Amino acid sequence: MNLYIFWYTSLIMMIQLGEYLKVNGVKFVYFDVGNVLFSFSGGLEKLARMFEKPLQDVQSYWRSKDDDICRGKLKPQEFWNLARNKFKYEGDDINFVDFWVSHFVKIQEGHDLAYKLAKNFQIGLLTNAYPTVIESVMGTDLLPNIQWVTIVKSCDYGFVKPERELLDVALKKTGFKASEIILIDDLKDNCNKVIEYGWRSIVFN
Q1: Nearest to residue 125, comparing CAs of 105, 146, 147, 152?
Q2: How far apart are CA 111 and CA 113, in angstroms?
């Protein structure tokens, strides 16, 4: 089995998962960040309140720009300027990265899983990330305090998950075969795509 659905649950299931991965030859675990280690929806909700617009309108506009920010083609501050103009916001200016990070909320279950798996596997981060965001949360309680063997951020390479180019970078950095790597991600589409490339995956839900 290459796809394993992991629901927020007990330490017993985490132990069972670790055993499952070892038996099936997994040697390296990549964690996604957003909605696995911390949530970020609070930032969008705050923007909707600031703009006095329906949340779905703000979410729709954000989704139209999110990949470009994650690819490093659009700076976070440029997105903020575009958004404030679109929604005719006349309030105070903000540093968008600081604003965005300030609304992240730690997901304890994801942290618990990372600490558990780090005892037996090499661990890395593979994330669609905005420039400077991961650096901003390093050393805070938003990320588990473990030894990340490698950190692959989309904004550094111009590609996003689940594009093959980014996955090839991530694969090369591990030194392992694709079948020895598992991605833990909240998006089923990402998990299904890495399976096509020979990886294993867990949908963190």
Answers
A1: 152
A2: 5
In degrees and rounded to multiples of 5, residue 109 shows phi and psi of -65, -35
E strands of the chain, at which residues?
3-6, 28-31, 38-39, 105-106, 122-127, 150-153, 181-185, 200-204
pLDDT number for residue 7: 46
- Are 33 and 110 spatial neighbours (Cβ–Cβ below 8 Å)? no
- Name the token pair of 76: 């976070």
Tokens of 200: 């294993």
Q: In what side-by-side order are the strands of the sheet with 150-153? A: 3-6, 200-204, 181-185, 28-31, 122-127, 150-153
- Over residues 75-100, the mean pLDDT reads 97
> Which two tokens mark 134?
């991961």
Give the position of tokens 């994801």. Answer: 110
CA distances from 71 to 34, 115, 143, 167, 180 (A): 16, 29, 22, 14, 27
Res 1 pLDDT > 90: no
**Cα distance between residue 172 and residue 168, in whole Å:** 6
> 97 versus 5: which is more confidently predicted?
97
- Rounded Cα distance between 180 and 202, Å, is 13
Cα separation, 192 vs 202, in Å, equals 9
82 with 65: CB under 8 angstroms?
Answer: yes
In this structure, the dihedral spanned by the alpha carbons of residues 147, 174, 15 and 10, taken in order and rounded to 10 degrees, is 70
